[in-house]
Write the structure tokens for this entry.
Amino acid sequence: MNYWIKHCEPPRSRSEGMRWDVFISYRSLDRIWAIALYDMLKQCGYQVFLDQFVLVTGQGLASQLGKNLDRSASGVLLWSKSTDDSNWVENEMDTMIARKNSTAGTEVPFFFVVASLDGKPPPGLLAGQLYLDFSEYSEGPGGADLVRLTSGLQGVPIGEDAVIRIVSYDQAVNEEPAKLRAMATAKRFEKIFERVTSDELAYTTSATLPGLAVEILIRGAVQPEEHERAIEAAKLALERFPNSLRLKQLQGLALRRSGRLDDALYELTLLHEEGHRDTETLGILAAVWADKWAQLKKSGDTSGARDALERSRNLYREGFAKVPTDTYTGINAASKSALLGEIDVAIVLADQVLAELKAARDKRGGEPSPDYWQRVTEPEALLIKGEWERSLELYHDARIAHQHEKGSIQSTAIQVKRLLGTLEVPDDIKKKLVAEFDLVS
């Protein structure tokens, strides 16, 4: 269990006025990776500031970095092609460089590390600045470079003996995500569960791979026993990593997907009350309130149902306002507005989402997103706007490309059914969507 921790450099003693050992700066599209880094550093004993309000281009630094970077002993700047924004990077880099220069020679000098998630170095990188390539770790940090990162945060060189010891382990960890996805495609979900419960180092030294495995189980779960398997996997992983934010989020998601709404509401509200107001937590909690709306509506509690739906919409809208690039919270804010009868608001939000999706697609050279939820966001926005045929086409493409994600497709089917009950959709399109998702009345 201590395989990684014994090689990672522990944090320095914080001087008076210092609240954080490390400040993580990231953009919304990289938030899952940032949460994985947060979990790992917490496991290594660091007090971590995770910028859950994500900086907006050209501003942002004054409120976030001004108050918290000055109270941080070190920083990590995450960079990837998906956040290719030179103005933001230059601002972030300049601020961290200034903090480093102003503290040089003091009792607690500030050090920072640039971590690339896809191998592309950011513009303006200074000679001598520690830059690490995590492109082989798409699910979260690990390997010798994680050890180098913690050493860089403390301004000390990494021990070469540590690097030698974890090289072979690196290879095993790097191969595991592909194996998990292959198991999912082949519907070998019981094998994925076995990986989570195994005593292999890849699953006992970091919450990253258990988190990925649990997420895959959730995405593939349709039957009650499959939901229970995902819940049990999350529970077992949390016993090993009780402070993992990502695993707690996934636990709430698994409970919600299984229909255990009150349990999900408790776990996610607890996270929210503890200060985790990132878009991931907000989005999952908002989804629970949407399910509570459906439950109360079915029971005949019209007033309580509307209150729950409005609460869901407001949480989604809060997330989208904080992070305008987060299309997941954006499209759900739009859909819940439509369900509330506020179609004009829904269309405005849908247009904002479509603009973000186009910008992201342009960066990929026009290629569709590899992520299921990104794929189904565009047709949902088009459905709200009344572009029926194109919406139907894109829904079909996403379902075929991700047909092994039965649980996720089922969630989309529920959302489509709800919207069809509200939007003025032509009968022929309704019939095709009903057939596409095998909807029942």
